[in-house]
Amino acid sequence: MKRPAIRSTLTAVVCSGAAALWLGTGCGVDENLYNAAVKDRDQTKVALNNSEAETAKLKTQCAKEGADKDARIALMRNKLESMGQDVSRLESERGSLGGELEQTKKRLEEIKKAQEQAEARASQYRQLVKQFKKLTDAGKLQVEVRENRMIVRLGDQILFDPGKTDLKKEGQDALSEVTKVLTSIPNRNFQVAGHTDNAPIKSARFRSNWDLSTARAVEVTNFMIKSGMDPKRLSAAGYADQSPVAANDTPENKAKNRRIEIVLMPNLEDLPPIDDALKATGG
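RESULT FIELD:
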């Protein structure tokens, strides 16, 4: 009578423990689910083995390609050396060429920037010529480019009487129009420069042409400020007879040298970088 109870107990223990994979009829385990799980395990194991084999194959291939590449490099080096070539020097020169290429690229960029600036100045020059056409046609002024600077040049015959600094009416009218145009140019400063011929002057007021040229430049500067020019955008300078535009050998040439020039000063971006400027001068 006790044996059936013991048998039931053992069956329950087996079905509830790690031996539940046993397919005895007393365990209640679905045979189809078990077979599917075993099949999935076997397929996963096969896939893992294939992956490991493929990985090993790729490692072997990469190692072989690396060895082949090293062998080709060594073969090329030996071939060059057999031809009398200094491989180390060639490699050094290759590095130098790379540096020179970068320098060339930088230089081309600088040239491009300089060209763009030159085109901008040319456009501004054409605009000035157009705006001053009425005055240039009347012979009252000239617009020119000299030493990479745009200059509005007015002869002293319309501005001053000989040896004087008081502006004549005709000169005031011309300067009013000039100031109106220059005021419309953004982000530009101007220098008013006075020039004389080489005929010496000495009077109670002017000890030399330096004094006369500077006084005339200051007079024009003050008039331009009264005409609406921002004084922060102006400076005045006297050059006496030290910067002629013609030989002082005829009355006509002397007249050309007696003049007021209004110079459009370059902006900082128009100038080369300080480091490049120092290199150019050996500093």
